[in-house]
């Protein structure tokens, strides 16, 4: 089977390419490199000893899809390409709606023309808004609080409508919780531009001495130690979830939605403690005011993915921190 991976040189995409190649799939990557480097794909080839096809192209470019679909017989698309910074999406809503939503509609139109009607989409736990209870199940009410989250929910709805109108389409929506960590080779990992927004990339930059301390955004939440609790999942577990989803597509499942998380919640202070252990030094932090829009607690009920995909996260928080530290210390400046 040949899989088109949009956004395949990015963080989750590159790890998924490794798992696809290792599972015997052929891989075609399409990425405009707006938030990644082609070097990640060289590393994917190095890890797997296998080749892949790469197109530097934008998902809003119809001709790029025409070229790819004419040069390859694609069986399914895994759609990672998108902009993902919550804060930036509030400042640049037009860019986010154009890139993520318009880009996806253009892609689906070109997929339809080429007769490619199987898609796995990167959604997010952000579509649950502020959940009333945890663990979060797939049938919980959906809402969003920022343009980034709105693009995820809109795309979920668009793909659902496409399936409703044409039952030949198989649509799997994967709602990720908080992906962290890196491939255990230390060759690929997350390489954010500028100062990271997310906790783990920030903590690892403090540990390596590029930032002075971690701001802990609030210690007055309704949680075990007052700091925010999240469901951190190893990026390799997440990548394997995509392989299971592609396998599921072979059964013509229609439209499905799955949480990909571990079901465990860790607080910010627990993460700092675990990371300090992994890197063998104290990571300094300061308690700071809450970050607007953050919620207290978010973790998954991932039992549906276990039941229907036969998928379950394997790696614990220790390995997530150790693998992230290996990537960070071997590549202090990312792919540069
Ligand atoms: P990433 O930025 O590393 O990867 C996204 C890739 O898409 C990048 O390589 C970027 O260059 C590419 N891209 C963006 N716009 C494009 C366009 N118009 N045309 C072609 N390529 C384009 O991000 P990631 O963390 O790997 O996330 C992958 C997907 O998963 C995204 O859709 C993201 O919203 C979603 N997601 C991520 C997280 C997370 O915490 N990392 C959580 C939930 C969902
Ligand atoms: N945090 C800090 N200091 C920091 C960064 C984060 O204390 O410097 C705290 C946050 O307040 C939160 C926790 O660490 O309690 C996790 O924050 P992240 O920014 O790493 O992750 P979020 O849960 O806020 O959001 C992430 C992605 C979203 C996605 C969501 C669910 O950024 O796009 O996970 O998948 F929707």
Task: Describe the 3D structure.
The structure is a single chain. This protein is α/β, with parallel strands linked by helices and 336 residues long. Helix content is 40%, strand content 18%. It contains 11 helices and 14 strands. The strands form 4 sheets. A 7-stranded parallel sheet has the order 3-2-1-4-5-6-11, with helices on both faces. The chain has a 3-stranded mixed sheet with strand order 12-9-14. A two-stranded parallel sheet has the order 7-10. Strand 1, helix 1 and strand 2 form a beta-alpha-beta unit. Helix 7 packs across helix 11. The protein is globular. It starts with a strand and ends in a 6-residue tail after the last helix. The model has no long low-confidence stretch (mean pLDDT 98). The structure holds nicotinamide-adenine-dinucleotide (NAD) and uridine-5'-diphosphate-4-deoxy-4-fluoro-alpha-D-galactose (UFG). Uridine-5'-diphosphate-4-deoxy-4-fluoro-alpha-D-galactose (UFG) binds next to helix 7 and strand 8.
Class of secondary structure makeup: alpha/beta
Low-confidence stretches: none
Range of strand content: 15-25%
The tally of beta strands, per DSSP, is 14
Largest sheet: 7 strands, parallel
Euclidean distance between termini CA atoms: 33 Å
Percentage of residues in helical conformation = 40-55%
Name the ligand types: nicotinamide-adenine-dinucleotide, uridine-5'-diphosphate-4-deoxy-4-fluoro-alpha-D-galactose
Q: Counting H and I runs of at least 4 residues, what is the number of helices?
A: 11
Write down the overall mean pLDDT: 98
SSE ordering = EHEHEHEHHEHEEHEEEHEEHEEHH
Anisotropy-based shape: globular
Give the strand order of the largest sheet, numbering strands 1, 2, ... along the chain.
3-2-1-4-5-6-11
């Amino acid at each position: 089977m040949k899989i088109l991976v949009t956004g395949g040189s990015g963080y989750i995409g590159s790890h998924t390419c490794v798992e696809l190649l290792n599972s015997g799939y052929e891989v075609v990557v399409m990425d405009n490199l707006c938030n990644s480097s082609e070097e990640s794909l060289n590393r994917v080839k190095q890890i797997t000893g296998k080749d892949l096809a790469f197109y530097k192209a934008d998902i809003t470019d119809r001709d790029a899809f025409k070229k790819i679909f004419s040069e390859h017989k694609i069986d399914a698309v895994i759609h990672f390409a998108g902009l993902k910074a919550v804060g930036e999406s509030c400042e640049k809503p037009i860019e986010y709606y154009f890139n993520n939503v318009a880009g996806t509609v253009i892609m689906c139109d070109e997929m339809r023309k080429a007769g490619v009607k199987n898609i796995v989409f990167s959604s997010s736990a952000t579509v649950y808004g502020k959940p009333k209870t945890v663990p979060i199940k797939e049938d919980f009410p959906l809402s969003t609080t920022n343009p980034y989250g709105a693009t995820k929910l809109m795309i979920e709805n668009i793909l659902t409508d496409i399936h409703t109108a044409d039952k030949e389409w198989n649509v799997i929506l994967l709602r990720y919780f908080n992906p962290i960590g890196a491939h255990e080779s230390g060759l690929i990992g997350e390489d954010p531009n500028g100062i990271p927004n997310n906790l783990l990339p920030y903590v690892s930059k403090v540990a390596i001495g590029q930032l002075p301390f971690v701001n802990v955004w609030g210690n007055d939440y309704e949680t075990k130690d007052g700091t925010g609790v999240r469901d951190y999942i190893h990026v390799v577990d997440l990548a394997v979830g995509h392989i299971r989803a592609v396998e599921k597509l072979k059964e013509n499942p229609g439209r499905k939605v799955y949480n990909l998380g571990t079901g465990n919640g860790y607080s910010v202070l627990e993460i700092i403690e675990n990371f300090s252990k992994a890197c063998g030094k104290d990571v300094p932090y300061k308690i700071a005011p809450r970050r607007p829009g953050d919620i207290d607690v978010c973790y998954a009920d991932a039992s549906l993915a276990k039941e229907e995909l036969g998928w379950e996260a394997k790696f614990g928080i220790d390995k997530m921190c150790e693998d992230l530290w290996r990537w960070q210390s071997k590549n202090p400046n990312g792919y540069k």
